[in-house]
Amino acid sequence: MLLSVSNLQKSFVSPDGERTPIVDVPSFTLAAGEQVAVRGASGSGKTTFLNLIAGILQADSGSIQLDGQHLTAMTESGRDRVRARTLGFVFQNFNLLQGYTALENVMLGMMFGPGVDRAHARGLLERVGLSHRLDYRPAQLSIGQQQRVAVARALANRPRLVLADEPTGNLDQRHAGEALALIREVCSEQQAALLLVSHDPTILSSFDRCADLAVLNRAGSLPS
Asked: Which of 47, 78, 96, 221 is the most buried (most CB within 10 A)?
């Protein structure tokens, strides 16, 4: 298995000291190259779940094994290195740097991995249909074009696993379908596994394997 999650738990402590469980997932696995959707309504813990897998958050307990490495046993710097080398992340709000061009945004993502490869960055942007927008900044791009830059950046370091958090949430129905098809196609081309969370039934129905986080997560429906 590329990804194996076991007894994963995460809670947050409020200012008054009350501890609230957010994620309590006994078991979850993902094979290399597999594409899986996870149904996650608001408050199901989906963003926290992805952030734990990505190593952005540290679990309270449990185990996350990614590509044979135990993320939960690593230091923060260790998780950062694994994330740069193994993971790509497509955020709902894209998280592009506004002062940089589309090409620079993709190349900046490479700085934390094997190294900057300008030709590869250009090739990814050409693959997602932005060969004529390399020097445009995010504010000069449409929402759909910004999403395409985010996809190219997520794949810049040739990751084994791509995580996508409501990646079509800011798009209309037509563009959402196009964006999903693009993400899945490019992941297949690069032989990257895909773990996507969404609440959109149209998006979810297009996956052969679709899990319900409300069932996986024993913490129940809580603020994510």
From this structure: 96
59-95 pLDDT, tens digit per residue, is 999 999 999 999 998 888 888 888 888 999 998 888 9
**Count of the separate structural domains present in the chain:** 1
Alpha carbon separation from 14 to 20, 21, 43, 48, 174 (Å, rounded): 8, 11, 16, 16, 40
The answer to whether 124 and 155 are in contact (CB under 8 A) is yes
C-alpha span between 71 and 67 (Å, rounded)? 10
Domain that holds residue 82: 3-11+22-216
Q: Is residue 149 part of a domain?
A: yes
Nearest Cα to Cα of residue 63 among 125, 9, 2: 9
Residue at 224 is within a domain? no
- Quick: pLDDT tens for 147-206: 899 999 999 999 999 999 988 887 788 878 888 898 999 899 989 999 999 988 888 999
pTM: 0.89
Q: What is the CATH number of the domain that holds 110?
A: 3.40.50.300
